[in-house]
């Protein structure tokens, strides 16, 4: 409050009482340059906002354990933001610790998928599989079920367990998962089973509205625009001299 009042006086040009902001400026013996410099320094000090250090991961985990009600939602949002930072910085183990803490409190589909994703990236497919299967048992929403099945299949596929991945991917595809269909279609295409691949991709193309990649010209839209070519002058065109 005091800083706001001081800043308001500076901006309005109101005379201040003798002190760090006003003594030299109102003293006829001081030079204008010196008074201006001191006022600028005082203004900078008034505008300084004390910085609060970011909590460490250990502190965030403790906050997650202790939070309740509205404070839990705010703490989870803060933890997820920090989780995103750790993922972008390739700090996988820190991200996993935060994901474990969030899922321990939330026990929700979003937290299960978040934890499973980071476990998959770290090569811990067994942990990812356990988390996703547990979430599947509790989830009743059909859309979220196929998203969990999709993530489960991708986790097993990423671990090199293609045979095990086909089951959950197939279940997700039957429930409407486009991503699962794309993965299964590519597997069939890779193995030379053209009829099966064609059947899967035809099903995806028939969806309304179709996926973006199924739209005509979508691939071309991903390419950079060609540089404009300059048209060379026709050498046979005579140049008319200026009058």
Order of helices and strands: HHHHHHHHHHHHH
Going by helix content, strand content and strand pairing, the class is mainly alpha
Q: Show unreliable segments.
A: 1-33
How many distinct helices?
Answer: 13
End-to-end distance, in Å?
76 Å
- Largest sheet: number of strands, sense, barrel closure: none
Tell me the β content: under 5%
Shape: globular
Helix content: 55-70%
Quaternary assembly:
single chain
Q: Rg from C-alpha positions?
A: 32 Å
Work out the number of β strands: 0
Mean pLDDT: 78
What are its keywords?
243 residues; mainly alpha; 13 helices; 66% helix; disordered N terminus
Task: Describe the overall structure.
66% of the residues lie in helices and 0% in strands. By secondary structure, the chain is mainly α. It has a domain at 2-47. The longest helix is centred in the first third of the chain and has 19 residues, at 70-88. The N and C termini lie far apart (76 Å).
Helix and strand arrangement:
Blueprint: H1 2-12, H2 23-26, H3 32-47, H4 57-66, H5 70-88, H6 92-106, H7 109-121, H8 125-138, H9 142-158, H10 162-174, H11 178-190, H12 194-205, H13 218-221
Helix pairs in contact: 1-3, 4-5, 4-6, 5-6, 6-7, 7-8, 7-9, 8-9, 9-10, 10-11, 11-12
């Amino acid at each position: 409050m005091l800083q706001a009042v001081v800043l308001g006086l500076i901006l309005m040009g109101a005379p201040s009482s003798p002190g760090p902001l006003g003594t030299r400026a109102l003293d006829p013996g001081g030079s204008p340059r010196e008074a201006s410099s001191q006022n600028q320094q005082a203004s900078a000090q008034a505008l300084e906002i004390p910085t609060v250090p970011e909590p460490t991961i250990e502190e965030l985990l403790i906050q997650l354990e202790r939070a309740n009600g509205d404070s839990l939602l705010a703490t989870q949002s803060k933890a997820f933001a920090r989780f995103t930072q750790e993922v972008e910085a390739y700090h996988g183990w820190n991200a996993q610790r935060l994901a474990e803490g969030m899922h321990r409190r939330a026990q929700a589909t979003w937290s299960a998928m978040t934890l499973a994703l980071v476990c998959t990236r770290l090569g811990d497919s067994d942990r990812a599989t356990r988390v996703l299967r547990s979430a599947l048992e509790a989830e009743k929403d059909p859309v979220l079920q196929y998203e969990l099945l999709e993530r489960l299949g991708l986790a097993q596929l990423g671990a090199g367990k293609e045979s095990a991945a086909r089951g959950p991917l197939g279940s997700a595809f039957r429930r409407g998962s486009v991503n699962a269909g794309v993965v299964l279609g590519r597997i069939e295409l890779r193995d030379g089973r053209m009829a099966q691949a064609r059947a899967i991709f035809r099903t995806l193309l028939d969806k309304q509205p179709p996926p973006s990649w199924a739209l005509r010209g979508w691939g071309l839209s991903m390419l950079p625009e060609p540089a404009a070519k300059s048209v060379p002058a026709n050498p046979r065109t005579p140049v008319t001299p200026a009058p």
